[in-house]
Amino acid sequence: MHVGIVTFPGSNCDHDVYHVVKHVSGGDAKYVWHKDRLPAGLDAIVVPGGFSYGDYLRCGALARFSPVMDDVVAFAKAGGPVLGICNGFQILCEAGLLPGVLMRNASLKFICRDVTLKVEGAETPVTRGLAGRTLTMPIAHAEGNYFADGETLDRLEGEGSVAFRYLGGAPNGASRDIAGISGGPRRNVVGLMPHPERAAEALLGRDDGKRLFEALLAR
Amino acid sequence: MAKKARVIVTLKKGVLDPQGSAVNRALHAMGYGEVSDVRLGKLIEVTIDEKVPEAEERKRLEEMCKKLLANTVIEDYRIEL
């Protein structure tokens, strides 16, 4: 499985994703610089976390116009698996690949701590075999407050597009305690605020996050 | 000759503005009890070379707002040209 990891100026979680995909999960990982086109032969794309374009204007607002994003959008529209983590989730929402927006945390604080997530909804490329499971992994963000209008939220719930929910309440004020959602023509696009790549090795304390990459690479 | 268009981006009514609430509290703490609400927005100054007629330029500014300057899920925009 060849995974492309899209990197923007300011992305800083690309190396952790590369490490987990290649060295922990045994896949093939390739960095894709935002000014380049997507190489042929990719089976999945990860848009990693960080501070692309310094979060200027709005998180992910500028990154969505980078040249590579035309290819990422086409890849997603053709049904290819795309995983957006943290800033990656913000970029996917700004690009219109997922509905809604990630706003400033309700507390105004940058929150950096473990959260417990429930895997819900219909199956996605990263949640295959994980239905109903509880996973622990860290969040580290100041803009993770997921918002969409009531109609959209009801639709997401009804369709099973809420993929991850914070147990015990969203620490950031996210609507309906939503931590991650899915979309795309084949439910192939997934975005979540927590960092599975930071919880992928037992040696480092937690490895629930590895399950998402194992599911992604098992296709 | 260049001119400046001003785009004012504000949060839609009903969208939570914790920054605004924090500023509100700070103003109260400073003794300005008459303030009942504060909401923060953005002022974006776009300098434009005056080559395009105003109606066309306004249309282009609308596109800029919809595509980039405002996130229309939670923000409204107003153009002053």
Describe this entry's structure for a reader.
- The complex is a heterodimer of chains A (219) and B (81).
- Chain A has 219 residues and is α/β, with parallel strands linked by helices.
- Chain A is 22% helix and 26% strand.
- A nine-stranded mixed sheet of chain A has the order 2-1-3-4-11-10-9-6-7, with helices on both faces. Chain A has a two-stranded antiparallel ribbon with strand order 5-8.
- With 81 residues, chain B is α+β, with helices and mostly antiparallel strands.
- Chain B has one domain: Mth169, Chain: A (2-Layer Sandwich).
- Chain B has two helices and three strands.
- Chain B has a three-stranded antiparallel sheet, covered by helices on one side.
- The mean pLDDT of chain B is 95.
CATH architecture of chain A: 3-Layer(aba) Sandwich
Please identify the structural class of chain A as seen in this structure.
Answer: alpha/beta
Helicity level of chain B: 25-40%
Helix content of chain A: 10-25%
Rg of chain B:
16 Å
Count of β-strands of chain A: 11
Counted up, domains of chain A total 1
CATH architecture of chain B: 2-Layer Sandwich
For the record, the CATH class of chain A is Alpha Beta
Mean pLDDT of chain A: 97
Number of strands of chain B: 3
What's the tally of helices of chain B? 2
What are the secondary-structure elements of chain B, in order, as H or E?
A: EHEHE
Largest interface by Cβ-Cβ < 8 Å: A-B, 20 and 10 residues
Under CATH at level 1, the class of chain B stands as: Alpha Beta
CATH 4th-level superfamily of chain A: Class I glutamine amidotransferase (GATase) domain
SS class of chain B: alpha+beta
Strand content of chain B: 25-35%
CATH topology of chain B: Mth169, Chain: A
Q: Which percent range describes the beta-strand content of chain A?
A: 25-35%
What are the secondary-structure elements of chain A, in order, as H or E? EHEEHEHEEEEHEEEH
Entry summary:
The complex is a heterodimer of chains A (219) and B (81). By secondary structure, chain A is α/β, with parallel strands linked by helices.
